[in-house]
Amino acid sequence: MTSKATGPRTGERRAAILGAAARLFAAHGYRGVTIDDLGRAVGTTGPALYRHFPGKEALLGAVLVDVSERLAARGRTLVDRAEEPREALTALLRGHISFALDEPDLITVHDRELGNLTDEDRRTVRRLQRGYVEEWVGVLAALRPDTPGPALRASVHAAFGLLNSTPHSRGPLSRGAMADLLLRMGVAALLAEEPDPR
């Protein structure tokens, strides 16, 4: 009985710590945040965090590995559930747009702090990201069968750049309006016709 009660609480505590760490790292940079800052952000002391993570570097690694795992798992699930490639592409775009709009701190931390990861955590993040990209590439290959693989991968990375750069600049647009705009732009970008060589 105790172990069942403890599990969810432990998971919730870990999620709260990762969320607070992402916000602080995004706002102040990895080097500008102390373990005491992190502890205060979740209502405890810095040293108490060592029960969950061995240090700040491990916490940064957990933040970026966690989001990479979530994106990769969601990408696989969305593709598996779709009945045809266009539906899969729309689902992938909607899923990534939700991530970009709802968790912009994680995009900031990834872009700015990847170099502060341990070699092992960086390899893990890169491996997970490659798997996520390949889910998109597989869907695009079915929709654009005449386009070479390298061009499809470049298209996916360019689409990520588009989607990931916009959450901080939506201005007066509502979340729903921004999500719809990004979906239309994402579809247009990923399914764009190849330029006429003439």
How are the SSEs placed, and which strands pair?
Blueprint (H helix, E strand, L loop, with lengths): L1 H27 L6 H7 L14 H26 L3 H18 L1 H10 L5 H25 L5 H17 L9 H16 L8
Helix pairs in contact: 1-2, 1-3, 1-5, 3-4, 3-5, 3-6, 4-6, 4-7, 4-8, 6-7, 7-8
Query: How many individual helices?
Result: 8
Unreliable runs: 1-6
The tally of beta strands, per DSSP, is 0
User: CATH superfamily assignment of the domain at 56-190?
Assistant: Tetracycline Repressor, domain 2
Q: What is the percent of helical residues?
A: over 70%
Q: How much of the polypeptide forms β-strand, as a percent range?
A: under 5%
H and E string:
HHHHHHHH
Q: If classified by CATH, what would the architecture of the domain at 56-190 be?
A: Orthogonal Bundle
CATH-assigned fold name of the domain at 56-190: Tetracycline Repressor, domain 2
CATH domain class of the domain at 56-190:
Mainly Alpha
**Inertia-based shape:** elongated
Structure description:
- The protein is an all-alpha fold.
- The chain has a domain at 56-190: Tetracycline Repressor, domain 2 (Orthogonal Bundle), CATH 1.10.357.10.
- Helix content is 74%, strand content 0%.
- It has 8 helices and no strands.
- The chain has helices at 2-28, 35-41, 56-81, 85-102, 104-113, 119-143, 149-165, 175-190.
- Helix 1 crosses helix 2 and helix 3 (56-81) crosses helix 5 (104-113).
- It is elongated.
- The protein starts with a helix and ends in an 8-residue tail after the last helix.
- Mean pLDDT is 90; it is low at 1-6.
